[in-house]
Design a protein that fits this description.
The structure is a homodimer of 397-residue chains.
Chain A lengths: L2 E2 L10 E7 L2 E17 L7 H9 L4 E11 L5 H19 L6 E8 L6 H11 L7 H10 L8 E8 L5 E9 L12 E6 L5 H14 L15 E6 L8 H20 L7 E9 L2 H13 L1 H8 L5 H9 L11 E5 L4 E6 L2 E2 L6 H9 L4 E7 L5 E8 L3 H9 L3
Parallel strand pairs in A: 4-5, 8-9, 10-14
Antiparallel strand pairs in A: 1-6, 2-3, 3-4, 3-9, 6-7, 7-8, 10-15, 11-12, 11-14, 12-13
Helix pairs in contact in A: 1-2, 2-3, 5-6, 7-9
Chain lengths: 397, 397
């Protein structure tokens, strides 16, 4: 599979637009009369836009999404909910569609009043710019960013078992890379396969669990996390080929998110093989990408396999130090740190020298084989840097 | 209750000593023919000294503990285990006691060979210095530090229900303050009450759960975490007064650990009241002290109650944004950020101004009332600073 240009606008008839003013951004995505499904945060405190979007998605139909950045409109009480409805209604009036066909998403500071005047102006500005061109997907991807440094959009084209071509496009924002991270994660995906809301929902849940949940989204979520998948239904019937392509797209977006984590200087990919169970493999992989000690060692370009082993042992996953192997890789090199309990990278060894070279790369891949079963999982993360602290100490008020 | 000087040597007949050489430190604690119990890490990978100490503690008896810093002797295979036994045997020969009456603990880098020659020399140097004076407790407390910046020792004297006086003394090391933290936590406590190993074990488990587990020790533990409690039995029978004093001592040590977290500039104390269950209150309190977003906001002196609310909502604890209150305190001031869902600290308010003053303090107390039940819990932590990243990027190799 290969990525194609165009982001969400790679899908026929999908229109997008985005505008920014000061610290606020606004994007609108239109895919008329779509079937839709979503995955929302499990945080017990829900942002007002999440409440509104849940209502809109009840009937599995959606025609548009309005998203603002700069203020999460969360923990804002009754007035916040009114503001979220106002965003929804303003867009539905502009587009002459029903209010319940519009979903709303917001990201930014929590617990502060949404500056409704600015948001209204931005909606008025954005709607006339709607169009189905790659530039418009890019504009929307830019408008939804907060502390992200780069817009994130991808698209794929693939073929259903029946031979019919289909496309999937997505834009997202992440950032805030130490779990439990609490930075808002938003993702909007367009496609054209035929599917019921339930079929879409199953496909999306499976993809989120294998991809986004291995980066940022977790039991510990922001109050506003939202992933929406909407389809025009103009291509053939959904099947496993769609699932494959959807996970390919979401994996790509996950890597973009990890690489652009707050202050990140290196992408970390952890593959755990030989886990006793899938859950074990997932826990082990995530424990490594979330360990601040591992993450800061990687920032320091230190091949500290002791911290990796300790994170594995503390992950709750079944591990045996005598059977496991730890290998470090960059796109160019490979070094076996530990081979079934034997330390290969002892001081003065060629392996340690190679590992130190590998750590200079900006893409570090850590492979663990637990040799306890067949389960595999991959997790993505980034290093912990001075800039993470700076960004989060300076953000807000 | 009040603290008294003397650390572990506040208890009669307890002898201690410590020595340092380059990055290595060594401490010996002697309390002959003691009854003893311990709590060890739950990490699946166990440091060699943990294996040896578990064996020594099987019969509930202990006469001495030998501790080294600079190398954790963990993930070091057969040779590591031999080295841990060698440490034990060297001390037992010097003191003319049985090997199984000596416990071993190590902290420092993981996965590297213990420099046995240096450790042996340090043992030879340390044993002749053993004595029951406050200075010796301090020397031992210093010898066990790694990235900690200050030795940590406390002692209390209290009275049993029978009127008999008893004493408890403790030294510890912590550091590495973002959960899952993985920094080794060691604590050694001496006392003189009469107790069976089981009674001591129950008292210790309860105290650890209410104090250390609310700071650093957790399901996600280092490979070497060890807390040992040993008693000479020269005072009266253990009772609830002992439990009270033990928890008072452990709370004091917990605060010292939190305040000296890697790079820490501020102590954070979170009190959650009105939880539906104890577990809920604990989860909520810990979620706040472990949230990197909350911790870096506090470093930035930003009273960001939105991040506190989001961490609460993501903690897994039952919370209701409409009933809860969030209050910030310093030793001098108090500001109500949110009162039963109503934001008091809106922009331009007196409360926000006060909150901004409070954040300049180096002791920040966050009180949450969930108004859902009677359960309470307190957790301790510190802010996330540039220095945390520097220390952990530079440490090792």
């Amino acid at each position: 599979m290969k990525f194609i240009p165009g982001g969400i606008c790679a899908v026929e008839k999908v229109q997008a637009a985005g505008s920014c003013e000061d610290e606020y951004g606004l994007a609108v995505i239109v895919s008329e009369d779509s079937t839709a499904s979503a995955v929302f945060t499990k945080n017990k405190i829900l942002g007002a836009p999440v409440l509104v979007s849940k209502e809109s998605l009840k009937n599995g139909k959606l025609s548009a999404i309005v998203i603002n950045s700069g203020n999460a409109n969360s923990y804002t009480g009754k007035e916040g909910l009114e503001n979220a409805y106002q965003m929804r209604d303003k867009v539905s009036e502009h587009l002459n569609i029903k209010g319940e066909d519009v979903a709303v998403a917001s990201t930014g500071i929590i617990g502060r009043k949404l500056p409704m005047e600015t948001i209204s102006q931005l909606i008025d500005e954005t709607i006339p710019k709607l169009d189905n061109t790659p530039k418009k997907s890019r504009d929307a991807a830019e408008a939804i960013l907060t502390t992200d440094t780069r817009p994130k959009e991808l698209a794929v084209e693939s073929t259903l078992s029946t031979g019919e071509k289909f496309r999937i496009g997505g834009i997202c924002k992440g950032s805030g890379m130490i779990a439990p991270n609490m930075a808002t994660f938003l993702c909007f995906i367009t496609t054209d396969v035929q599917a019921t809301p339930e079929e879409l929902g199953d496909a999306l849940k499976e993809a989120v669990s294998n991809t986004f949940n291995m980066v940022v989204v977790d039991g510990d979520m922001s109050t506003n996390d939202t992933v929406i998948l909407m389809t025009s239904g103009s291509s053939g019937k959904i099947d496993h080929k769609f699932q494959e392509a959807l996970e390919y797209l979401c994996t790509g977006l996950s890597k973009l998110i990890a690489r652009d984590g707050e202050g990140a200087s290196k992408l970390i990919e952890v593959l755990v093989k030989g886990g006793r169970t899938n859950d074990d493999a997932r826990k082990a992989a995530k424990a490594i990408v979330t360990s601040p000690l591992v993450k800061s060692a990687i920032f320091g370009e230190d091949p500290n396999w002791g911290r990796i082993a300790s994170a594995l042992g503390g992950s709750g996953s079944e591990v045996d130090e005598k059977t496991m192997t730890i290998t470090l890789r960059s796109p160019e090199k490979e070094a076996a740190m530990v081979d079934k309990g034997d330390i290969k990278a002892f001081e003065g060894s060629k392996e340690l020298e190679m590992a130190e070279e590998i750590m200079k790369s900006d893409e570090i891949k850590i492979t663990i084989d637990l040799f306890l079963g067949d389960a595999e999982a991959t997790a993505y993360g980034c290093d912990l840097t001075y800039d993470y602290v700076r960004i989060n100490a300076e953000y807000s008020t």
